[in-house]
Amino acid sequence: MQEKEYCVSGFNWGRIDIDKNSVQLTHDGYLIFKMNPKDFTKSSISNKTEVSIEFDDSKDGDALSEIKFFAPQTEQQNDKDNATELYDKIAEVTPTNAASKEVCLFENIGFLSPKGHYDVKIYEDSVRVQNKTYDFKINYKDIARYYKLRKDEDTSFFILNLSNPLKKGKSVYECLVMELSSNEEVTAELHLTKEFEDKTGLEESMTDNELDLFVELFRSLCNVPIISSGHKFKTNDSHFLKCNLSTNEGFLFPMSDSFIFVFKRIRIIMFKDIKSVDILRMNASNDNKTFDFVINLKGRRGSLQFTGMNRNEYENLVGYLKESQLKLEETLQNTERRMEEDDDSGDNDEEYHAEEEESGDDDIMSESEEEEEEQQ
């Protein structure tokens, strides 16, 4: 058995050696640390100089969850930079990165979160999102839900809700948000084995708009529901309410079991996490053109206040809240009662004016009748 001395001088840089049984870092022949690739859950390249390895941290007790390697670029650079070469070697020995057959490729897809344009590679068991700076791999089993949210006639948001969030530096992404064309026709050439074609029902050549192609692919590749906007809430030919959350302007989509706020990032609020809802700055005599919508969360998680909603959307939103059986705060209930009373009083005023007009006609008729009697 070959013995190797450990480096105890505090060095954190050196030579990295990788094979299928180990990944080890040494300095001048002294071992700094050694890892077993079987313990890796995911490897990714975070930028042009940084490669990260994630470990299974679901077990009880303290455990290493992530380690990052810094691979600086050199003046004499090959076709690949140092970080990419290191990532490729680590990816080969990472169990969950084991290569599967590539099905198709979509180039230069616009992402709202994480922001940028990425190539999307569809594999038999995963999807890979990468550009010159970042490289993420998402296994289909780590996708909890898909959302298809209509932004306008030309564009929709396609959202992957992840059960195992992605990490990009200090940022954590529970969702990937793509902006896809709803009317631009594209053709995707798929590389399918006979077995995989029979299993998924996909065809070797598919032509459709960009959004529907993604929907069809993910519906066939991953057995999770695809949820669309517009089923329970739709107003003025849109499926959302334009508003602000703090200083962030975005789109609030009322869904069948949740609210989804889309901005630079994304926020999903499930009904099961909502204690009550309220509407502020809204009554019949108010001249404000906008109102605020408040979601009070269960526990000690506080509340979310969406501001600047168009006053014309009030009735649609309240109807949706009642249909969804969400608890209405007393402020909102009082507002509803006042507005109903104002509507009733408005109807009574109209009836009163109508009665006055009728009685006025009777008076005129009676006066003319009196004149006729006097003449006789």
TrEMBL record:
Chain ranges passing through the membrane: none
Single GO term (MF): histone binding
PANTHER family: FACT COMPLEX SUBUNIT SSRP1
Biological process terms in GO annotation: DNA repair; DNA replication
Gene3D superfamilies named in the record: 2.30.29.150, Pleckstrin-homology domain (PH domain)/Phosphotyrosine-binding domain (PTB) (2.30.29.30), Structure-specific recognition protein (SSRP1) (2.30.29.220)
Biased composition (Acidic residues): 341-376
UniProt source species: Entamoeba histolytica HM-3:IMSS
Protein family: Belongs to the SSRP1 family.
Protein name from the UniProt record: FACT complex subunit SSRP1
Any Gene Ontology CC annotation: FACT complex
Family matches, as Pfam families: PH1_SSRP1-like (PF21103), Rttp106-like_middle (PF08512), SSrecog (PF03531)
Region (Disordered): 331-376
Alphabetized UniProt keyword annotations: Chromosome, DNA damage, DNA repair, DNA replication, Nucleus, Transcription, Transcription regulation
Locations listed in the record: Nucleus; Chromosome
Domain of life: Eukaryota
UniProt feature, compositional bias: Basic and acidic residues: 331-340
The Histone chaperone RTT106/FACT complex subunit SPT16-like middle domain, residue ranges: 238-331
InterPro entries: PH-like_dom_sf, RTT106/SPT16-like_middle_dom, RTT106/SSRP1_HistChap/FACT, SSRP1-like_PH1, SSRP1/POB3, SSRP1_DD, SSRP1_sf
Function: Component of the FACT complex, a general chromatin factor that acts to reorganize nucleosomes. The FACT complex is involved in multiple processes that require DNA as a template such as mRNA elongation, DNA replication and DNA repair. During transcription elongation the FACT complex acts as a histone chaperone that both destabilizes and restores nucleosomal structure.
CDD domains linked to this entry: PH1_SSRP1-like (cd13230), PH2_SSRP1-like (cd13231)
